[in-house]
Amino acid sequence: MYGQKFKHGRDLQVSLQFFGYRFTLATALNACANLASLEEGKKVHGLRIKLGTDIDVCVDNALLDMYAKCGCVDNAWTVFQSMNDHSIVSWTTMIMACAINGQARKALKIYDEMRLKDIQPNYITFICVLYACGQGGFIDEGWELFASMTRDYGILPVEDHYACMVNLLGRAGRVKEAEEFIVRMPFQPGVLVWKTLLGACHVYGDMEIGKRAAEHVLNLDGKDPSTYVVLSNCLLA
């Protein structure tokens, strides 16, 4: 709906007058991000530049997110550097922008820069940096970050963090270690964790662990057809 609404400049101008700059620009950028519409996103960016410095950081965060989801890390970095203020959302969005676009090492460097500025990471920040570790194969860094969540910041890992660690180990072919990690979880593992392990088993052809992972998924969600597909592929591999 929003993608159609903000497709034409006249509609955007009317919305600016009616809803105000912050809401309209952020909503338009979110629509462009969800549609991966770089051309339209750049038009909104141009309007944001014309409006000058009197813009809430939320708009610039939405701009970062738009460029990230359109695969334009350099553009996102340029916006990030031009911002007067950086919230934890700004830092986290920039970290994820690098992580999802093949720049895992840069994602970790940005995280280190954030810490040097005494910005406290939140649980979403850790999801992003752990995901970056998985993308880059940085196992030692991943373990250290996972440990630092509770040790340094008092953040208890939730299922998303455990799934990131399973993904990290699984992508490195350490499927058995990933399963043992799941077994040691302090709460009942959910579908996300077991499906992540199942995906790793499919890649590396580990039928034994794959069967166990699939059983757990089906016990939790017996109507999930993708599990049967992945399991059958494991058996055929």
From TrEMBL:
GO terms for biological process: RNA modification. The keyword Phosphoprotein does not apply. Keywords: Repeat. PPR repeats lie at residues 87-121. GO terms for molecular function: RNA binding. It comes from the Eukaryota. The keyword Repeat applies. This is Pentatricopeptide repeat-containing protein. The lineage of its organism: Eukaryota, Viridiplantae, Streptophyta, Embryophyta, Tracheophyta.
